Write a sequence for this structure.
């Protein structure tokens, strides 16, 4: 069970918008997601911006290097840094990805896919429990987009994600674009996926753009949210109700107003779907 | 902590070896199959219609691995990348990652060893100052997000009686780096920053020191004044103002006191000091 906090519709805090935020403030954006590792260093302009944002809006921490599915040991240094950051920023919540990213102490700085096996499930669940104990809070785990799947998988991705959340008692950050991308890449139904995720575990939604590379979709986070992703978002919202939603735009990042407008589009769609619910 | 699971461990070893293989996935697979026969064919463990499709899909990750790190290093070293050109920089990154793969949770640290790595790299035969240019760019990045500190004000020092000055301990802000340079790469940095052609590579080393620091939210660098590099290092190491003056005197004789107070004035003006303390009476 995840105690849902419907923060509304936010955007990611990104470097090209720092000057705008320092000059104009957050200007109607309901909340911000920041990449945790970008704030592991203690000072300078990034922190000045983050503290300004935090005065004006809720912030959530979104990590990319926890490596919950790594076979490398959990990094105590990483957990210490994350705990210090959470203590300083007091985020609404902390999230990372259901993936792995390092091997033999070397980091790929990528979100690599796991096999959906019972062995991987037990491994991940034990680590989520450990992380939640260390941080003294539940975390959200996000489904990643993927380009390969493994013969050793015995569960579907949505079964694996749901089961991790249930057994470890964590929340789910449902990335609708990632479901859309992976559904095309692996030939499963995106609708089946989102319908199977337990509503009471979904604490946050991600939306983003992707790139069609012919034989597969690439999760590029470039451009506006495509129509197919909006459609899937409508379906999710109809099922789960008002949910904190973040619009990501990480390549060829346009001006602040354009990214904020995407968040307002998401807000309008949520209202259309839910009415007065 | 749970033990590393066997199947998962094997899968991750294979996957990671392939996406980081310097030759690419297909040639890497041929090499790795000699050590681990189970790794080939890929579609024996990766679901795909055939081997070609499995390679294409794994190549997505291999490309992301390299190009994400290339991009990060380009952001850390924009002047260096400009100095050597795109092809040389690409090849430099390929060489660098083989020796220094990321051991860091944050990609922010990936370029930490580049200056030292360049000391022995072929590109440095063409541009001897590359290690210096790299250390200058890295230091600017380090001071950019170093811990904040409130700069010491001249008025705080004005209240200290003259007889106590010898015992003063002055704190240097965290956002200061002192560099020992061999070549005038500050001129290269400036030319590239202005969009001008950089000067020809210097043939002979001519050592000097630089001070890199953050003031407000902006990183700056300049050549160190006479005696300044040693003085800042001494303060960092905990020397008193009196010890600092004695060291300057040994080096500069009667000019020591004017040098010491000139440095102090400059540090206060630039906000390089953050604290003053005296031993308890």
């Amino acid at each position: 069970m995840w105690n849902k906090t419907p923060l509304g519709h936010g955007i990611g805090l990104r470097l090209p918008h720092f000057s705008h935020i320092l000059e104009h403030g957050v200007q109607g954006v309901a909340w911000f997601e920041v990449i945790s590792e970008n704030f592991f260093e203690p000072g300078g302009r990034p922190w000045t911006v983050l503290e300004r944002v935090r005065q004006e809006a809720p912030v959530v921490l979104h990590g990319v290097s926890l490596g919950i599915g790594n076979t490398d040991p959990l990094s105590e240094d990483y957990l210490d840094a994350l705990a210090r950051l959470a203590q300083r920023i007091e985020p609404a919540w902390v999230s990372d990805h259901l993936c792995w990213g390092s091997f033999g102490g070397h980091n790929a700085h990528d979100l690599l896919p796991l096999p959906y096996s019972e062995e991987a499930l037990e491994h991940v669940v034990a680590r989520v429990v450990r992380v939640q104990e260390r941080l003294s809070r539940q975390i959200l785990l996000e489904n990643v987009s993927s380009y390969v799947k493994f013969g050793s998988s015995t569960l579907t991705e949505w079964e694996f994600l749901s089961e991790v959340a249930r057994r470890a008692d964590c929340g789910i950050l449902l990335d609708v674009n990632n479901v859309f991308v992976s559904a095309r890449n692996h030939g499963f139904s995106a609708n089946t996926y989102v319908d199977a995720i337990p509503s009471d575990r979904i604490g946050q939604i991600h939306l983003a753009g992707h790139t069609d590379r012919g034989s597969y979709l690439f999760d590029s986070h470039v451009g506006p949210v495509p129509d197919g992703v909006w459609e899937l978002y409508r379906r999710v919202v109809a099922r789960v109700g008002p949910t904190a939603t973040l619009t990501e735009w990480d390549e060829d990042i346009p001006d602040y107003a354009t990214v904020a407008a995407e968040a307002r589009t998401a807000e309008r769609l949520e209202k259309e779907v839910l009415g007065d619910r | 902590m749970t033990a590393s699971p066997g199947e998962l461990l094997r899968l991750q070893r294979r996957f990671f070896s392939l996406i980081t293989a310097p030759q690419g996935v297909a040639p890497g697979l041929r090499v790795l199959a000699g050590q681990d026969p189970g790794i080939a064919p890929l579609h024996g463990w990766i679901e795909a219609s055939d081997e070609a499709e499995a390679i294409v899909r794994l190549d997505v990750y291999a490309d992301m691995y390299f190009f994400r790190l290339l991009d990060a290093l380009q952001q850390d070293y924009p002047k260096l990348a400009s100095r050597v050109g795109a092809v040389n920089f690409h090849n430099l990154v390929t060489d660098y990652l083989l020796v220094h793969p990321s051991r860091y949770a944050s990609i922010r640290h990936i370029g930490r060893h580049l200056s030292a790595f360049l000391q022995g790299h072929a590109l440095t035969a063409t541009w001897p100052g590359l290690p210096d240019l790299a250390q200058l760019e890295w230091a600017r990045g380090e001071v950019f997000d170093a811990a904040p500190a409130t700069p010491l004000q001249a008025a705080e020092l004005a209240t200290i009686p003259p007889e106590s000055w010898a015992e003063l301990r002055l704190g240097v802000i965290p956002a200061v780096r002192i560099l020992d340079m061999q070549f005038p790469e500050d001129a290269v940095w400036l030319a590239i920053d202005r969009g001008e052609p950089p000067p020809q590579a210097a043939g002979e080393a001519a050592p000097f020191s630089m001070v890199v620091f953050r003031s407000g939210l902006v990183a700056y660098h300049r050549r160190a004044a006479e005696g300044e590099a040693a003085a800042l290092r001494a303060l960092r190491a905990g020397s008193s103002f009196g010890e600092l003056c004695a060291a300057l005197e040994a080096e500069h004789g009667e000019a020591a006191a004017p040098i010491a107070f000139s440095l102090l004035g400059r540090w206060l003006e630039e906000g390089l000091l953050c604290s003053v303390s005296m031993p308890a009476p």
About this structure: DSSP finds 13 helices and five strands in chain B. Residues 77-277 of chain B form a domain with the Outer Surface Protein A; domain 3 fold (CATH 3.90.930.50). The CA atoms of residues 210 and 224 of chain B lie 5 Å apart. Chain B has a mean pLDDT of 94.
